[in-house]
Amino acid sequence: MKLLILGATGPTGRHVIDLAVRSGDSVTAFVRNQAALGDLAERVTPVTGDATSHRDLAAAAAGHDALVSALARGNSVRADGLFTRASAAVIGAAGEVGVSRLVWLSSFGVGDTFHWSSTTQKLIYSTLLRSIYADKEIADESIRSSGLDWTVVYPTRLTHGPAMGTYRADGRLPMKGNPTISRADVAAFMHQAAHGSEWINRAAVISD
């Protein structure tokens, strides 16, 4: 499978790349700075561009089977419109070059998932993460109405732990406290979703 991966140099994106390469996929890593790929640069096709640019994404996406976005703001709590601008660019580019499959990383607590959150989660989402989650909500709604074969992934609090393979994934999950999931497990789910049809046009809440 030919995959174009956005957010490839981030901690979740790097896990997606590693899984894809090991499974025999042909991987294009869409990055702002190729040097940030480090040793991964020799295992993928690096393409430099702006994830909010329709033109850059269309040039990179042509000929691929699926787009996988692990875009994130790192440690910043300010969205600066990244997700709304990137989603518009991805939707436009995918439509232009005929790539219908999109797996998009969001966050639990965005949109309707906020209402299923625990009291602890609601406090965090409505204060510290308010700006980013508002931006992500607009992006997610755009993707849902895009006409693409989308999957939006809603992980709980991300950790740098190893992949356990015992996570839960469903349209809705009960929440207590502030549960976590490793980035490695999220990447495994996203990679699997890109290869299958089970999660097409569905949102996936994922947590340990």
From TrEMBL:
Transmembrane segments: none annotated. It holds the Pfam family NAD_binding_10. Coiled coil: none annotated. InterPro entries: NAD(P)-bd_dom, NAD(P)-bd_dom_sf, Polyketide_Oxido-like. One of its GO terms (molecular function) is riboflavin reductase (NADPH) activity. Residues 7-194 form the NAD(P)-binding domain. This is Putative NADH-flavin reductase. It comes from Streptomyces luteogriseus. The lineage of its organism: Bacteria, Bacillati, Actinomycetota, Actinomycetes, Kitasatosporales.
